Amino acid sequence: ILVAQGSDRVDQLLVSKFDGEQKAEDEAVFTVTGLADTGVECKRTRLHQTLVYDCPGTYQSKSYRRLFFPIPHNGESYLLLIQTPGETLAEAGRVAEPIVNSVKFR
Q1: Separation of alpha carbons 90 and 85, rounded Å
Q2: Which carries the bigger pLDDT value, residue 4 or residue 8?
Q3: Is the pLDDT of residue 8 over 80?
């Protein structure tokens, strides 16, 4: 439902909406499984209290992270993909966490 890209082509935000509270996580698992088929090793973990699938990569010799955040809410779910530079989850999380924490439902 939303796509945004930074000027460097590394910073990206993608938001998808799904019917069903489990569907966003199912989609995250499907996506990271596909990434694994290409050699990307993703990890299911937490950034503080928030579930995230952390997928490291490189672009033009720079490290970045693809962070997939499934967010269930009221019978629906949302999948946020935040791609941002970072050697570690903690580094990329400094960019991603304020975005995830700013999500508001109406």
Answers
A1: 11
A2: 4
A3: no
In angstroms, rounded to a whole number, what is the distance separating the alpha carbons of residues 71 and 37? Answer: 25
Nearest to 11 by CA among 75, 45, 62: 62
Estimate to the nearest angstrom the gap between the alpha carbon of 52 and the chain centroid. 7
**Calpha distance 25→106 (Å, rounded):** 21
- Token output for 100: 């995830």
The set of residues, in sequence order, having a beta carbon less than 8 Å from that of 59 and lying 6+ positions away, is 9, 10
Q: How far is CA 53 from CA 7, 8, 68, 105, 106, in A?
A: 24, 23, 5, 22, 26
E strands along 30-92, which residues? Answer: 43-47, 50-59, 62-73, 76-85
Q: What is the pLDDT of residues 32-71, one digit of tens each?
A: 999 999 999 999 999 989 999 999 998 888 899 999 999 9
